[in-house]
Amino acid sequence: MWARAAVSWVAAGVFALALPEAGAGPATPPGAPDDAVVRDTLARLSEAWRGLDGVDLAGSAVTPDRFTGRVVVLDFWATWCAPCLAEIPWLRRLRDDFGIDRVEVVGVNLDVADRRRLVAWLNRQRVDWPQLHDGRGYGGAVARAFEVTSLPTLVVVDGRGRVVATGLRGERLYRAVEQLVSARLRASASLRSPSLRLGSPAPRPR
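-> structure tokens emitted (206 positions)
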């Protein structure tokens, strides 16, 4: 049952959209923190998102206004982190399947390396979504603001600028984003796309 919840225990009871049996009432996995802890955690992360003000490796501003109306997956990662690299196909799939007009990934790279070396690596791996990098690792301003202590850390922000989940990876991340996109499509008929088939089995990343 908990595998089908598609929600990190951190966000259980808050991210109700991602629960397949959402109408059945709250579903909190064993060992999950209480609702007050969840709300406080997500509130702090939402505040960190609203305060984000950086410049990506392409020289473009990275602020919440840039992504208004879109689901954002904020990916804290490093090139030396094997689990981080395993997430790249899933992140690419999110952008490909839902379109960058609905879903965007923003990388926050924690490599302590020079910019030129990182850009070369990104080009080789065809990682083309926005990337923040200050060369300070865990001590960087964005990593500290989002309380990052381990990698990968993935933070999901809804179209209204609220952090709704953290800690999701792979198919669980895909399902959570799918639920957010689906809810937005239902709320605005003008955004419906006949080519977007929500609810189908999550494709395996290439």
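Residues 1-28 have pLDDT under 50 and may be disordered.
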